[in-house]
UniProtKB/TrEMBL annotation:
Residues 115-134 have a biased composition (Basic and acidic residues). It is an enzyme of class 3 (hydrolase). Its EC number is 3.1.1.29. GO terms for biological process: rescue of stalled ribosome. SUPFAM superfamilies: Peptidyl-tRNA hydrolase domain-like. It comes from the Bacteria. The keyword Chaperone does not apply. It comes from Pontibacter burrus. InterPro entries: Pep_chain_release_fac_I (IPR000352). One of its GO terms (molecular function) is ribosome binding. Keywords: Hydrolase. Residues 97-134 are annotated as: Disordered. The gene is arfB. This is Aminoacyl-tRNA hydrolase.
Amino acid sequence: MDISERDFEKELQFQASRSGGAGGQNVNKVATKVELRFHVESSELLSVEEKQRIQEKLAARINNDGYLQVVCQTERSQLQNKALCIERFKELLRQALTPQKKRKATKPTRASVKQRLENKKRQSQKKADRRFNL
């Protein structure tokens, strides 16, 4: 099942606080900053393999208590920041759970090899010319 189709709403915790930075009087009295918290281990919507992959890929975003945190404070309304947090959260999960493609080893093209050798010869000749001009 795709990440966007799963209903994580029941497992998400939200906390609102005052946002920092510029914004005038509104900043001092309105809690618009939203912090989304998601406990990876206790999730019922993720399989064991998905939990392991998320913990490996998003280790920098998971705190010591096992919570994945996403913070949004760009918008001026708490509702917009909450929606943005959910969107970012789903995008993070999608990226973490997308398997990385294996790299196919390729050989350099004949033209690139020829060009590299010509450049080496040119550089070598330039340095050889310097030796005799002393």
